[in-house]
Specification:
By secondary structure, the protein is mainly beta. The chain has one domain. It has 4 helices and 16 strands. A hairpin with a 2-residue loop joins strand 9 and strand 10. The two termini are 31 Å apart.
Length: 275
């Protein structure tokens, strides 16, 4: 279920691929939404019938590194079931990526997951000057395989997509307007069209109120999701664009991620309302 949350959180603004396909070597006009040192944590709730269970935690971190002699952002997301649920279904998921700080071109990505004994690992090595990526994928059901794919410029992995799209100009979209994009998952590109649904006020489990921007996206059928279901996402209506709430149906029940804490934000939290 934690892989579901991380994929959901990544899908929430993966529209960045279409929105930021610029006629330059830059994948976003500028980064105004986040900076190194940001840490955002979510509580993960699993629903089966009338019961909601606080089942896990997911944390998203931003660091500065050097990779291939380039200054990069290192996006590092880690998800885990709470210890008391490990006996039932132990999860330890980690998603990481490096992106060029200047151009926001993705350079490297790794997914390393353990879920109830099922192991999966994907690694991407991007060649942005050639519009290619070398993917290495393996899991408990399939031995390691390596492919070289041709991709469009600014084709993001799921984690980089989150941070790129937090810089979207939401004021330029109309209610229910689709935002075409493609995203790389495993060794396959998917085309999706999230829709801007307007603005709402959201209350967290801690009782905090946030003015939010709402989106939905039709989910890709696969290990976690069934085709035709939609995911709903609310992000802060300020320059941080931090996801506050994410909801989606999965194959058994539903999953919800709710903002628990945030530190090191780049901008004032003007979307946070007084109780």
């Amino acid at each position: 279920m934690l892989r579901a949350l991380i994929l959901i959180a990544a899908f929430l603004f993966a529209g960045a691929t279409g929105a930021f396909a610029l006629k330059t070597d830059r994948c976003i006009p500028e980064n105004f939404a986040f900076t190194a040192g940001e840490e955002v944590e979510y509580s993960v709730y699993y629903n089966w019938g009338p019961i909601w269970v606080n089942a896990g935690l997911v944390t998203f971190n931003v660091h500065e590194r050097v990779y291939r002699n380039r200054p990069v952002y290192h996006f590092d997301s880690y998800g885990t079931t709470l210890r008391r649920y490990d006996w039932l279904f132990k999860v330890r998921d980690r998603f990481q990526s490096y992106v060029d700080k200047e151009t926001f071109q993705p350079l490297w990505y790794e997914m390393d997951t353990y879920e109830g004994g099922y192991v999966a690992r994907d690694v991407y090595h991007y060649m942005p000057d050639q519009n290619r990526v070398v993917t290495t994928t393996e899991n408990s059901d399939r031995p390691r395989q390596t492919d070289t794919l041709d991709i469009e410029a600014c084709s993001f992995d799921v984690i980089t997509a989150v941070y790129a799209a937090r810089n979207l100009d939401f004021q330029s979209y109309r209610i229910n307007e689709p935002i075409p994009f493609s995203i790389l998952i495993g060794n396959e590109l998917f085309d999706l069209s999230p829709r801007f649904l307007g603005k709402e006020t959201i209350k967290t489990r801690e009782g905090e109120l946030f003015d939010c921007i709402k989106f939905s996206v039709e989910l890709v059928e696969g290990f976690i999701f069934t085709a035709g279901n939609e995911m709903f996402v609310w992000v802060t209506d300020d320059d941080n664009r931090v996801p506050v709430l994410v909801e989606a149906q999965i194959r058994i029940g539903s999953v919800k991620a709710m903002l628990k804490s945030s530190r090191g934000l780049r901008n004032p939290e003007s979307a946070r309302l007084a109780n």
